[in-house]
Amino acid sequence: MTDFEGLKALVTGGASGIGRATADLLAARGADVAVLDLDPGGVGIPQRAYAADVRDDASVREAVASAAADLGGLDVLVNNAGIGAQGTVEDNDDAQWHTVLDVNVLGVVRTTRAALPHLRGSAHAAIVNTCSIAATAGLPQRALYSASKGAVLSLTLAMAADHVHEGVRVNCVNPGTVDTPWVSRLLDAAPDPAAERAALRARQPTGRLVTADEVAAAIAYLASPLSGATTGTALAVDGGMQGL
Ligand code: NAD
Questions:
Q1: How far is CA 43 from the centre of its chain?
Q2: Residue 145 annotated among the catalytic residues of the structure
Q3: What is the pLDDT of residues 193-215, one digit of tens each?
Q4: How many Å separate Cα 87 from the centre of its chain?
Q5: Ligand 1 pocket test: which of 22, 38, 210 has the largest number of ligand atoms within 8 Å of its C-beta?
């Protein structure tokens, strides 16, 4: 497929997991792809890699400007960089709240702010945010993470309304439990990782975890001109979790 031929895309958190699968898929479909990540080492040709921390406005501005200059413009922004947190409201202190909201919420704001002047020049401008079913599902032990993704969902709707008249579409994906290095790290920290993985699989209606490629495919759809009439939506990629 070459539905991204001639389009230029920037993927944050593109060095691992969902972001990496998305960068690879967009490149395979013909896009010129740039990756912004804390440590983009290992991201191969044809992707361009820019080291930046989405907590640091100056580093985001610099990376986005460099990516747009090197690519010759920007049509697609995938706001995917994110970190997790476990626990109830009693378990996370203020410092943890500030850190997670800084990455997951303000990270989206900073990258979008830096990218919008470039996106406005595109005939196919699209922003896709990686949200989560945690935004709406009321998951136990995820108070901080859920609040951060709830904010990403609200931001998606607000940004879609603000920028629709400028020709910039804004949507998000709501993944369920996705088999990425992040989830592997969590499972590996359990006393019995194999048993924990089996229990996690058993909790999925499909009996398996979602793959990063499946989330990437949904992101690619929302980023592509094929979804040109769609803005302000959240697409669940959760193996049926939300329906439970
Ligand atoms: P991952 O840890 O495999 O990849 C995340 C990437 O983001 C890493 O490359 C990391 O270096 C980068 N990153 C983290 N903090 C950053 C920062 N401050 N600045 C720049 N880059 C930063 O994780 P993943 O599972 O692929 O998650 C990607 C996104 O998907 C996140 O937003 C996460 O909340 C969301 N998500 C994941 C799952 C899941 O089950 N894995 C489910 C729902 C939503």
A1: 17
A2: yes
A3: 999 999 999 999 999 999 999 99
A4: 22
A5: 38
